[in-house]
Amino acid sequence: MKHMKLLFLYGPPASGKLTIAEKLSQTTGIPLFHNHLSRNLVKDIYRDATRQHYGLVDRIRYDVLDYCSQHGTDLIFTYVYEGEEEDDEDIRKFTEIITRNQGTITFIELTANREDLIKRANSESRRKQKKLIDPAKMARITENMNKYSISFVDALKINTSELNPDEAVTLIRQKIKL
Q1: Residue 91 · residue 150 · CB < 8 Å
Q2: Which of 169, 158, 177 is nearest to 27 (CA)?
Q3: What distance in Å separates the CA atoms of residue 36 and residue 23, rounded to the nearest whole number?
């Protein structure tokens, strides 16, 4: 049986996770399960109370990753890691689910210069996905850029202020031999 390969793209908001993941999916044929699929589903149900029901977001993600890893279905997944204890628990749980089913995870950390993140905040593509679009809030949440890096995983690191999305996808494909 084929074992799952999970390409796990993470980083701060507006670092290009979805844009790069979509291009990576298009060029490799690997399906994309981006973080807003589960989050927006719960947001559509609970609206302003989404934070209180974030456990449902996590359950959806765990179940999809478990099911796909049991069936050897490769996936590209995006995630905003913010250095919180809950984020560490999620990363460990995702890893446990995938490795329990003999799958592998390749972590890809996307980052960008803080000024670029703030400029990108109010874009049409972010608005369409119901993402954070307030430049002032983006400025506040990116004061400590170190919180977006997962210290306990090995990751391919890409600065999207230095590479455009096509160049980032090419680099990912070269480095992880896709």
Answers
A1: yes
A2: 169
A3: 16
Q: Which amino acid is at 119?
A: K
- Residue keyed to tokens 């506040």: 140
Token output for 118 = 């703030």
Q: How far apart are CA 155 and CA 66, in angstroms?
A: 22
Instruction: Quote the pTM value.
Output: 0.90
pLDDT tens per residue across span 109-152 = 999 999 988 887 776 665 566 566 666 776 887 888 889 999 99
Specify the residue for token string 């990576």. 24
> Is the confidence at residue 154, as pLDDT, over 80?
yes
What are the chain's domains?
5-172 (3.40.50.300)
- On the question of pLDDT at 171 being above 90, the answer is yes
Q: What is the dihedral of CA 108, 8, 48, 63, to 10 degrees?
A: -170
Nearest to 78 by CA among 14, 163, 146, 166: 14
